[in-house]
Amino acid sequence: xxxxxxxxxxxxxxxxxxxxxxxxxxxxxxxxxxxxxxxxxxxxxxxxxxxxxxxxxxxxxxxxxxxxxxxxxxxxxxxxxxxxxxxxxxxxxxxxxxxxxxxxxxxxxxxxxxxxxxxxxxxxxxxxxxxxxxxxxxxxxxxxxxxxxxxxxxxxxxxxxxxxxxxxxxxxxxxxxxxxxxxxxxxxxxxxxxxxxxxxxxxxxxxxxxxxxxxxxxxxxxxxxxxxxxxxxxxxxxxxxxxxxxxxxxxxxxxxxxxxxxxxxxxxxxxxxxxxxxxxxxxxxxxxxxxxxxxxxxxxxxxxxxxxxxxxxxxxxxxxxxxxxxxxxxxxxxxxxxxxxxxxxxxxxxxxxxxxxxxxxxxxxxxxxxxxxxxxxxxxxxxxxxxxxxxxxxxxxxxxxxxxxxxxxxxxxxxxxxxxxxxxxxxxxxxxxx
Length: 434
Prior knowledge:
Largest sheet: 6 strands, mixed
Helix content: 40-55%
CATH topology of the largest domain: Rossmann fold
Radius of gyration: 25 Å
Number of helices: 18
Shape: globular
CATH class of the largest domain: Alpha Beta
Oligomer: single chain
Number of strands: 13
């Protein structure tokens, strides 16, 4: 068996394996685990799949009997440092386990980030340098702390053990899994059939992720549905190293604000958890009515009783779904900012979109009084569109106004005065000054 190096517990301090066990013992002295049925009720909330559920129950029963928390693992992709509501779904499930008294372990994939995970993609994600993955990992943890109990979360970097593996270790690890089984993964299958290249380092990625489970002896691993294959490999490799196989829990991939694609910055259909209150509020109100309950269930802390009330309201034809959506927007802003911020965001939204006013604070752009300029050039000048083509689309669709006057002619030449307000789209305002 490969040796397991020291685990990093926190962003700065490195502790030995015995210290890691000591941390668990300290937590154990403070735990009063809820009954198994109560734990399962919370664990199953919003989950897509538990594999296998009977093994999870046995682990929980042993945990309750011995008074020892389970190791709950979540691997973090450091390729993008900005988290959105989609990421919060699996983080919230980790927080559920925390609230039940179990040990939440966030694994920052600083080593695997240098490989690039192809999960759910036709091509692999671009690889990063170790320095980039570390920086992104710190940002990830800071944002994740809006959801997790920071003081009860253990942070580990998988370079701590993967960097120390020799080539002999890698060969031995590779011998424990077949190419045929690896090609069963959906994204590999699609690429293989279409003639797209699959590099050897990509095939090693699931094995590297599995070694994370070996290193921390995870009892449960969490992930999105697109991570199912990798999580199952972790179960198999743990057995190969003489460990009890982890249970895997997959969470749904939340649909973005467009109601079509999964939430992603690439599709520009995301709600960032670090965005301003007004952005979170406004973006939430733009989601289709069909997603309201789904967002409440997966992205908020509402109890099951409160969720039932939401469902009843949505089924009531006398209640406008818009009002329930406003409740959702207020809930999300309160979670990531404050109740006061949610109130201000609501008032700002009403002032702009209901009363057709302007925000209290509008950024300014210095522009010569009386200067003539084509409307497309003005939109690009203030960075409200990346190209003339995009600016033209905004104008022809009626999304551009100057001091409240809608402009639909993209050839129009305008002469802004000092203090003129340019509005582009629903939420972009700028004041033109001398």
